[in-house]
From TrEMBL:
Single GO term (MF): hydrolase activity
Pfam family, any one: NUDIX
UniProt xrefs under PANTHER family: GDP-MANNOSE MANNOSYL HYDROLASE
InterPro entries on file: NUDIX_hydrolase-like_dom_sf, NUDIX_hydrolase_dom
Domain of life: Bacteria
Cofactor: Mg(2+)
Domain Nudix hydrolase: 35-161
Name of this chain's protein: ADP-ribose pyrophosphatase YjhB (NUDIX family)
Keywords: Hydrolase, Magnesium
Amino acid sequence: MSAQHAGDPAAFAADVLEEGPAEVEYEPGIAARRPGKTSAGGALIRDSTGRVLFVVPTYKPVLDIPGGMTDENESPKAATIREIREELGLDVELGPLLVVDWTPRNGVWRDCHQFVFDGGIVDDASPHDDELEAVVYLSLDEARPRIYPSLHRRLTLALKALDAGTTFYAEFGREV
């Protein structure tokens, strides 16, 4: 269920009904032939000194921001809220969308639309999930050797968007 309807399932159901009957295929099988694209949502959370909150996952060798992949029929914003609750035990009200970034296929992972939302200021976050070893607050320069270059570019854009009060579109972390 989308974040805007999270507190009101009846409103979500009404929107679904208003959309009308499910679309049918005029050419059988065309939908199944379309590529599956993933999406993920994450939050740019900072502490009161401006450092960025990174999670230390147990399942990959690099740091990441709080968030994760969307579940089926889940919006990126709802996934971000869910993942922050699961990972950090926090209920945050996300601010505006800062960056939409397309990333290409990488090994076993399909290409992906990645959404970065303003997660606000949170001091003293701690892990609340077995998937995390720890959390750390770092400047982007301090984090650079411990994160993927594309995430560094994406977060640089996110901080720029935060300062400018805008949203950026990027491809592999580079503004387009």
